[in-house]
Design goal:
Elements lengths: L3 H6 L11 H14 L3 H44 L10 E6 L4 E2 L6 E2 L4 E7 L2 E7 L1 H9 L1
Antiparallel strand pairs: 1-4, 2-3, 4-5
């Protein structure tokens, strides 16, 4: 085994960087207070910063998804609460169980296959208007 071989096996790398005199003094003081070598302090701080950044990034992504979901729910509730008039050709609303996924005509809420929904009935048959229960209730209140 040559002198170069143990160096190749080493997984750690050395990083050189320039820092201000004040930062070097602050780091040195902190390392002395903690009784650890400066290099260990710097390595630990960098590792912790990257861990925190990853955690914050993941949490922000989840938070944005939650906010978007809640905004969609609020939009659908607001649309359902807004007074709507029945289309002039609709004679009434017939309850049914959906055979395929659809969306509410009023609030755009997704309606899953097997879910109860209401279809507008005209003199010539079923219309293209489909409502969720909340939107039907909102129409009944007007």
């Amino acid at each position: 085994m040559t002198d170069a071989e143990p160096r190749r096996e080493r997984k750690e790398r050395v990083l050189h960087t320039r820092i201000s005199r004040q930062l070097a003094e602050d780091i040195g003081r902190m390392a002395e207070d903690l009784r650890v070598p400066v290099s260990n302090l710097v390595r630990n701080v960098l590792e912790e910063v990257f861990t925190v950044v990853e955690t914050v990034t993941d949490n922000v992504g989840e938070l944005i998804e939650d906010v978007m979901d809640e905004a969609g729910r609020v939009r659908r509730r607001a649309a359902a609460a807004a007074p709507r008039e029945d289309p002039p050709d609709v004679l009434g609303w017939q309850a049914l169980i959906l055979a395929r996924a659809a969306s509410c005509t009023d609030c755009a809420a997704p309606l899953a296959r097997g879910q109860r929904a209401y279809v507008g009935v005209t003199a010539s048959g079923a219309s293209s208007h489909t409502l969720c229960a909340d939107c039907l209730d909102a129409r009944r209140r007007t």
